[in-house]
Amino acid sequence: EASLAGEEGGVTERTFMAIKYDAVQRGLISEIMGRMEKKGYKLVALKMVWPTEEFAGKHYHDLKERPFFGNLVKFMSSGPAVAMVWEGPGVIKMARTIIGATDPLKSNPGTIRGDLATSVGRNVIHGSDAYSTAEEEIALWFSPSEIHAWNRTNEDWISSNN
Length: 162
Ligand code: UDP
Ligand code: MG
Known about the structure:
Its EC number is 2.7.4.6. GO terms for molecular function: nucleoside diphosphate kinase activity. It comes from Sphaeroforma arctica JP610. Helix content is about 35%, strand content about 15%. By secondary structure, the chain is of the alpha+beta class. The protein has a single domain (about 15-150), classed as 2-Layer Sandwich (Alpha-Beta Plaits), CATH 3.30.70.141. Strands 2-3-1-4 form a 4-stranded antiparallel beta sheet.
């Protein structure tokens, strides 16, 4: 039985992404979603979520000891995020490449953060950093019934092994 994150390295590999509230405020939702969509990845789950501080703390549990943790959970719970699951070949690693470095001033132009942000505390987007965190974060933000395994009619024009 495949997990919520699909098959690691397979065409059904899935990652969790969240458009943070700064990007929602700035009107960057479609700009950010469009980059994943145009790349050829498939959106299989989508909803707006206004996280509580407790929920934001769960999402960022591995950063609890960091000095910015308090401000981070306050920021994340200050308004709704756009929560998404994206599916496709190599999507976990590629989403991180498309996102860019954590600090937008160190992100290359052409990446989401490199093009759209200047501050680490307002870096517009989250993406799972590995298969294990993708699994964990998809399960935290979505129930299985909210994830849709729909078929694209133009799949042959997006993916081929030769
Ligand atoms: N963050 C911050 N200050 C820092 C480092 C991180 O405010 O010095 C925030 C930032 O929003 C970042 C999030 O904490 O996206 C999670 O940090 P992580 O190192 O996991 O970066 P990411 O995986 O988002 O690139
Ligand atoms: Mg991270």
